Amino acid sequence: MLCPRCHRRYADDHRFCPHDGEKLVGALDIRRIRSQPTEHVGTVIAERYRVRGLIGQGAMAQVFLAEDTRGGAPVALKLLAPRFRREPKVKARFLLEAKAAATVAHPNLVEVLDIGLHEGSPYLVLEFLFGEALSSLLLREKRLSPEAGIPILLQAAAGLGAAHRAGIVHRDVKPANVFLVGEKGDAWAAKVVDFGFAKLYEHSGLTQAGVTVGTLEYMAPEQTVSDPPDARTDIYGFGVLMYRMFSGKLPFSVARGSSPALSPGADEAMVLSSQLITQPPPPSLGATPVERALEAVIMRCLRKRPENRYPSMEALGEDLGRLARPLALAANAPITEPDVYVARTPFGAHAARFLYRQLGLVYGAAT
After folding, report:
1. Catalytically annotated residue among 172, 194, 234, 267
2. Cys-Cys with 283: which of 20, 97, 210, 290 at CB 3.0–4.6 Å?
3. 304 appears as a binding residue in the annotation
4. pLDDT tens, 277-332?
5. Can you name the CATH fold of 132-358?
6. Where's the Protein kinase domain (predicted)?
């Protein structure tokens, strides 16, 4: 039996989904998969993928529920947002990122099924995932126990590690981009989604309009000053994700709407400045303390200097595995002091000076 809301599967004797209370159905019918109405319903892309509804949309792209007419399977169809479909540089970058993602096959990465052009605009077809984003789970549960969270993290780290070995940096690691496939009460299978779209912003002109590359609270110090990212950039975002998962809070967050005296963007600038230089409060100090060994792993991910973080997702995964065993953690290895980010480009140094001023500091005095 199948839940038409969350798409979890149950034995034949079940009648209602224990996860969300929805009445179960006997077979997968694409018409029962929840999606939003769209004017594109019925449109066939590339003479194969029939649009059934809208799943989600952002500044860069729209994602549709579609039916593969060669067999009837549901797929996720990603198209550039209409405003970018006539932008040659953005279309070329979309195809480049899609093709790069398609070269990496890993059970913890969303599978790319097809890439192509339709009426001159690129499209990307992904496997349709049944389940929910980690962000949805955290809205309900607020925080997870290490027993529930570490298996998810190990899988996400494995998927990101595979992408890094292929030369792909995600740039926007956050709970919304970790998808959980599985039934409530069982071990989830985690898949990392939405590769490449943070990088697309750099080629879209959106950054010139004040749109940051990545999600503000999950951005690594190097992203705040537009320095080149690498695998350690994703490790920082992974650390913020772990901090949120186990403490129920973010290390630095925007107090949206709570400071009317601040000028527009001032609170966001303070968050970016904090990402650059301020050490986050240890999660063990929260209302629900995080055990010290797990905290050590989180805090190493959140080091300002990339060289002070884990060198790779594999090294991070090894420490996550050690948490269940009485072994020494690499998280406790010595680091370069002071742990403040040092910009690597002239533009990065200029941006750093501005962000330091938000905290009343002089760039270079602490480095």
Report:
1. 172
2. 290
3. no
4. 999 999 988 767 788 999 999 999 999 999 999 999 999 999 999 987 755 566 66
5. Transferase(Phosphotransferase); domain 1 (1.10.510)
6. 49-328
Indicate the SS3 state at residue 284: helix
CA distance linking residue 40 with residue 44, whole number of Å: 9
129 DSSP assignment: P
At 16-27, the pLDDT tens digits run 887 667 788 765
Q: Is 12 a catalytic residue?
A: no
Judge contact between 320 and 157, C-beta under 8 A: yes
DSSP annotation string for 165-205: HTT---S--SGGGEEEES-TTSPPEEEE---SHHHHHTTTS
Give the C-alpha distances (Å, rounded to integers) separating 335 from 231, 251, 280, 299, 340. Answer: 18, 20, 16, 12, 11
What single letter denotes the amino acid at residue 315?
Answer: A
CA distance 321 to 310: 14
Question: Taking the CA of residue 224 as centre, how many other CA atoms within 13 Å lie in the half-sphere pointing to its CB?
Answer: 27
Whole-angstrom Cα Rg for the chain: 21
For 329: left if phi > 0, alpha if psi spans -120 to 50, otherwise beta; the answer is beta
Does the predicted model carry a pTM greater than 0.90?
A: no
Single-letter amino acid, residue 157 = A
CATH 3.30.200.20 fits 35-127, yes or no: yes
Contact 366, 337 (CB under 8 A): no
How high is the pLDDT of residue 339?
A: 86
In single-letter form, the type of residue at position 185 comes to G
What is the Cα–Cα distance from 228 to 245, expressed in whole angstroms? 27
Going by the DSSP 8-state scheme, the letter that residue 124 receives in this structure is: E
